[in-house]
Amino acid sequence: MRLSTLIWSSFLQTCLASHAQRHIGKNVSIPTVKITVDKGTHFQVIDGFGVSEAFQRSAQMHGKAGLSPSSQRKALDFLFSDEVGAGFTILRNGIGSSTSYTLDFMKSIAPTDPGGPNSTANYEWDGDDGSQVWLTKEALKYGVQYVYADAWSAPGYMKSNGNDTNGGSICGVIGTSCTSGDWRQAYANYLVQYLRFYKEKEGIAITHLGFLNEPDLNQTYASMQSSGFQAGDFLTILAPTLKSSGFGDVKLVCCEATGWNDGEDILAELQSIPGAEETLSVYSSHGYSSNPALPFKTSISRIWQTEWADLNGRWNVAWDNLGKEGEGISWANKIQQGLTLSSISGFLYWIGAETTTVNSALIRFSNDTISVSARLWAFAQFSRFVKPGAVRVKAESSVGYVRVSAFETVGGGLVLNVINNGHVGVKADVEVLGGKGKGGNVTSWLTNNGNNLTMGGGFSVTSGGSGGVDFNGMVPGRSMMSFVL
Ligand SMILES: *[C@@H]1O[C@H](CO)[C@@H](O)[C@H](O)[C@H]1NC(C)=O
Ligand SMILES: *[C@@H]1O[C@H](CO)[C@@H](O)[C@H](O)[C@H]1NC(C)=O
Ligand SMILES: *[C@@H]1O[C@H](CO)[C@@H](O)[C@H](O)[C@H]1NC(C)=O
Ligand SMILES: *[C@@H]1O[C@H](CO)[C@@H](O)[C@H](O)[C@H]1NC(C)=O
Ligand SMILES: *[C@@H]1O[C@H](CO)[C@@H](O)[C@H](O)[C@H]1NC(C)=O
Ligand SMILES: *[C@@H]1O[C@H](CO)[C@@H](O)[C@H](O)[C@H]1NC(C)=O
Ligand SMILES: *[C@@H]1O[C@H](CO)[C@@H](O)[C@H](O)[C@H]1NC(C)=O
């Protein structure tokens, strides 16, 4: 079915034409890009977009470093609001392994060694969890749907190196031999106890659980190494423990490799352990050491990119900053390519908001001021409109520098994300195939150096389309525009 032709204001046309002239120096005709969306060709289901406030960043957000209550609210709004922010739907919390909250450590719920894997664990609950309890309750009020609790390490006494920092493995997994015994069941019980504290003491249902972070690295902070064989070994104990403890509905996530290539290797090893792959609802990897550029070969229903950031270069709020670290337009492309090339269902930046000098977060605090980077708006271009349950559909562009992705929403609406990496404005002629369009109004949302998710809205829809065009719109150079039908 044809939708209708969307008539743009002549004002915008004029702006775009003069923008093109400034770049090219003489009058040029505006390039036309043919975009085809096929609602009949379905790909992955979307869980959403998100961030973490692990390592006590949640405490910073809660005022530990001087942020006033009104600024705390602003930061929460920017991250989670669907009216003025990114509308994130996934929060990744850190399960502590350390003996204290010194520096930014995450404290364990069983900080002292009970003396052996068969002894009764010394659990304690402080009701705060480094302000993650507060943050999670706030996030849920805004509509966050998935709370993912992930452990960077087991407590030191459960590990081959006796410390939650500096690598080491869970005692008892394939390839380890610890004098303290086999701690696999104790670690599974520990993770379940964390879920129980949140559920019983705080009324929070954690939806997703992970037990590793970057298992290919040995770091001076909480870190635990694991091959895919070892991860698979532990999963075959963790999964039945969840079930028998009444947490069978919590979805297991693994393995958080540092980059996509390591993630591929760890997955292949895990698949060789009978029954391990079947325990997982999400296969996760990070983007740091290699980008998500290929789909994983797996029967696991969801792929998440759970942590990534530009960690070099100074704090940069710009959208288009000539390729400098942390600019918004490169993140818009990274997110979109993760969705289209790697069939990602959940895409998370590392930190949402923190005190920082680099681009590790989307929002920066310094004393009581808040600085919002264009990376947040790059995320918002997706996360405000592509909500959990949306399905990616086929979308193609006739021009290489104009990249597209499209999603059918739960209500039958359509979201089309267009990134114009070119330096002049383009006219996008959009054709929608395969199934009914929603008709009615099309709104467009623009982010570039002068706009942070600006709505060009309530465009009046006129006559039916012709020549294979259902609607069209002008997308300025170096800009991202999402069309929402
Ligand atoms: C470019 O287009 C503008 C607006 O149509 C017109 O006023 C101007 O004369 C043109 N310039 C050239 C060099 O053709
Ligand atoms: C763990 O290692 C850190 C250094 O990374 C050290 O300060 C600490 O004392 C160690 N803890 C134990 C229990 O050995
Ligand atoms: C991790 O790195 C530390 C510091 O370089 C080193 O002392 C330790 O042996 C390493 N751990 C393992 C398990 O290789
Ligand atoms: C813990 O209990 C198991 C099963 O009863 C036993 O096989 C194992 O030797 C015990 N481990 C330790 C360290 O006591
Ligand atoms: C933040 O506050 C501290 C202590 O009052 C002050 O020294 C510092 O200059 C402030 N930083 C900024 C960026 O305002
Ligand atoms: C967009 O956000 C940036 C960074 O916070 C800010 O400097 C700029 O003024 C905002 N632009 C608009 C048009 O709101
Ligand atoms: C389209 O949007 C305009 C402006 O917001 C509004 O006046 C009009 O009623 C809308 N039409 C439909 C069909 O929703």
From TrEMBL:
Gene Ontology MF term list: glucosylceramidase activity
Keyword line: Carbohydrate metabolism, Glycosidase, Hydrolase, Polysaccharide degradation, Signal, Xylan degradation
InterPro entries linked: GH, GH59_cat, Glyco_hydro_30, Glyco_hydro_b
Species of provenance: Clohesyomyces aquaticus
Residue ranges constituting the Glycosyl hydrolase family 59 catalytic domain according to the UniProt record: 72-355
Pfam families in the cross-refs: Glyco_hydro_59
Superkingdom of this protein's organism: Eukaryota
Name the record gives this protein: Family-30 endo-beta-1,4-xylanase
Keyword flag Transcription regulation: no
